[in-house]
């Protein structure tokens, strides 16, 4: 009887094996995050601290961008499953550049709102398609390493962006906004030269059919809805936490705040996640991470100095750095291989709705707490929101399978 054929061992992962397209996607991820975090914290600082706008009004502007990007990402992901991601990503880079350049010349609420909306639409075109492109260009056994590198590249950009923004404050908000826009033009050029025309897994798939399948997936919808509360909390780094950091440490406090948050993620995210995955189920990791983020926000209400606020921000970072990769793992576990774009796009609803609510409520709660003379109240309400979210996630994840496919994750 002939011996059974032994399957070849998978090639070991090595940076030397990365293709120009993979390097291009990693590079533009770094540039996108750097350009984004160069300007977004300064929007709050410039229009609230510099021009005296109400924090709630700026929160509406930031919320519109968040809702436009994450809300329309549903369509961007489904479209990528049908036509391929390359053209969507390229057009998204250009629209994001136009939106951020428009912020440089926005002197009215309406102008800033329109610029923010255009920037959000640009992000919707490249967000889910970028993940779909990297998946299509990467062997399945190497995808975890590539997505880890993608996260590291983004967090490195998150470290550099606020530091550049703080350094450019002396040059003015308009200069910073134009430089941010220029990074997305550079992203367009890099991907134009390196990214091939990746075709969808199934011709004629995706589109509205892919979205219908995602909507009909009851356990996936429950998971997506439960995550809204977490993304309401995660957005506070750009609103409530930034405002308190500036109040305690001055306008230049945004640089150290964002550098700490992203720097800890760069150093600890991969080893901490590997340690947690070897000991706990995905549901436990996710709910513990959201609990830690909620507790740290509650403690920020009682931080009377900038160093104490940074200590709370460090705890916040430890929680948030575990949420994103765990969430992405669970989405990919639930999605059919031919509908990765549609599922990743649909999952962005939680970030869009939660982020928009977080931007609006964060600024409004800060104004409300100040008017009542109870500055700790907004932070306690955010913490309570986090605890409700943890309960909702535990309920939703009862039906999410583990890697083995049967037991809850």
From TrEMBL:
Keywords: Cell membrane, Membrane, Transmembrane, Transmembrane helix, Transport. It comes from Deinococcus proteolyticus (strain ATCC 35074 / DSM 20540 / JCM 6276 / NBRC 101906 / NCIMB 13154 / VKM Ac-1939 / CCM 2703 / MRP). The keyword Cytoplasm does not apply. One of its GO terms (cellular component) is plasma membrane. Signal peptide: none annotated. The chain crosses the membrane at residues 20-40, 47-68, 100-126, 146-165, 171-191, 220-243, 255-273, 285-302, 339-357, 377-397. It holds the Pfam family MFS_1. One of its GO terms (molecular function) is transmembrane transporter activity. It is a multi-pass membrane protein. It is found in: Cell membrane. The lineage of its organism: Bacteria, Thermotogati, Deinococcota, Deinococci, Deinococcales. Its main location: membrane. It comes from the Bacteria. Residues 21-401 form the Major facilitator superfamily (MFS) profile domain. This is Major facilitator superfamily MFS_1.
